[in-house]
């Protein structure tokens, strides 16, 4: 039936082929599944309608069969009561209902066959939908892995480029300059420390000289 054609086309096609033209495979997969869900919902409505038709013909068939049996019993009772004319009328009406039985039986069998076929197709659609969902999980994982690999490859392709090498060499030279400046600063600090020590020694020497002079004066005074 045309209602199932769209799903049938999708289920027979390879999802991998559909993904070849997709800019974003994950979004496209979700879109396909949403479309299939909509198709299944429409199919369920169609199946429900066909089942309703099947039940309607079944009910009409059963009612007609009951009338056939009823008229036959009534004809028998009329004969037992000696009323042949009434029995004849009952049998005539029985024949009318028997024709209805024959007609409803054909319609019911056709309706049931159609309903059974739609039920089968609906089950197949739902099974295929579940298979697609499972396949989607695998394809999404593959797509994510491919994206990650692509990003890594792009990053790795920039390793060892001239710009990076030159920049790395320039930074190495900068570090050497900083180390040289630090070493020079340390040497300058040592030089300044030695000068301070010498000046301090001179200061200490003058104090000793003064102390010696005072002792000398004190000695002369005592004499």
UniProtKB/TrEMBL annotation:
InterPro entries: PspA_VIPP1. Belongs to the PspA/Vipp/IM30 family. Keywords: Coiled coil. The lineage of its organism: Bacteria, Bacillati, Bacillota, Bacilli, Bacillales. It comes from the Bacteria. It holds the Pfam family PspA_IM30. It comes from Vulcanibacillus modesticaldus. This is Phage shock protein A. The keyword DNA damage does not apply. Residues 19-205 form a coiled coil.
């Amino acid at each position: 039936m045309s209602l199932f054609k769209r799903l049938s086309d999708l289920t027979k096609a390879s999802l991998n082929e559909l993904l070849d033209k997709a800019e974003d495979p994950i979004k496209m997969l979700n879109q396909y599944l949403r479309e299939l869900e909509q198709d299944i919902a429409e199919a369920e409505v169609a199946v429900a309608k066909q089942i309703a038709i099947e039940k309607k013909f079944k009910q009409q068939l059963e009612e007609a069969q009951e009338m056939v049996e009823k008229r036959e019993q009534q004809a028998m009772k009329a004969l037992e009561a000696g009323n042949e004319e009434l029995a004849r009328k009952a049998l005539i009406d029985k024949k009318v209902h028997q024709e209805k039985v024959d007609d409803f039986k054909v319609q019911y069998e056709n309706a049931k066959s159609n309903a059974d076929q739609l039920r089968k197709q609906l089950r197949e659609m739902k099974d295929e939908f579940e298979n697609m969902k499972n396949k989607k999980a695998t394809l999404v994982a593959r797509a994510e892995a491919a994206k990650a690999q692509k990003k890594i490859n792009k990053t790795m392709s920039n390793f060892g480029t001239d710009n990076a090498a030159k920049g790395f060499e320039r930074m190495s030279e900068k570090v050497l300059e900083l180390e040289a400046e630090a070493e020079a600063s340390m040497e300058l600090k040592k030089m300044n420390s030695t000068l301070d020590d010498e000046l301090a020694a001179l200061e200490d020497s003058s104090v000793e000289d003064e102390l010696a002079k005072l002792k000398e004066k004190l000695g002369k005074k005592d004499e």
